[in-house]
Design goal:
Helices cover 30% and strands 17% of the residues. It is of the alpha+beta class and 150 residues long. It has two domains: 88 residues, Homing Intron 3 (I-Ppo) Encoded Endonuclease, Chain A (Alpha-Beta Complex); 36 residues. The structure holds zinc ion (2 copies).
């Protein structure tokens, strides 16, 4: 029977999405904060490894994007294959929900405006700032950017 499976342990953690993240607890993080696995002498991110186990192999020019923005998450339904160029440009234009990547995020100014805004619905605010509604919800609940006081 095929290759031996690696043993991966994880814990449930509520994140940006409606379903909890599977936060990997069994593997060490690399310098960018992604859990890493060694297979046949090469290193790979655990989420990428698992994604390929479930969805099939992806080329080197394809990134496995975290829809939940949690680097430690290994839940395949939270992952999505994206061509590298498209992936980075979507992050750069803030098109993706819950931006947390270093090169794109809502500015503090935008977060302040969102916090103070009481006349728009969360969905309207999400559309306006081109982020996902779950992120707006989190900002409103003070779960993210809690260092900003409205
Ligand atoms: Zn996740
Ligand atoms: Zn991404």
């Amino acid at each position: 029977m095929g290759r031996p499976q690696i043993e991966i342990r994880y814990r449930l953690k509520n994140g940006l999405l409606n379903t909890p993240c599977y936060e990997c607890t069994s593997h060490k993080l690399d310098s960018s904060g992604y859990p890493q696995v060694r297979r046949n002498g090469t290193r790979q991110h655990v989420h990428r490894y698992l994604f390929q186990q479930v969805r099939g192999l992806v080329n080197d020019d394809v990134d496995v994007h975290h829809k939940c923005e949690s680097k430690m998450c290994i839940r395949v339904s939270h992952l999505e294959a994206k061509v590298k160029g498209q992936h980075s440009s979507e992050h750069n234009t803030g098109k993706l929900a819950g931006e947390k990547h270093p090169n794109v995020k809502l500015t503090e100014n935008q977060v302040c405006k969102i916090l103070k805004d009481t006349e728009h619905t969360q969905q309207q605010l999400a559309d306006k700032h081109r982020v996902g509604q779950p992120l707006i919800s989190k900002i409103k609940r003070g779960e993210r950017w809690s260092y900003i006081s409205a």
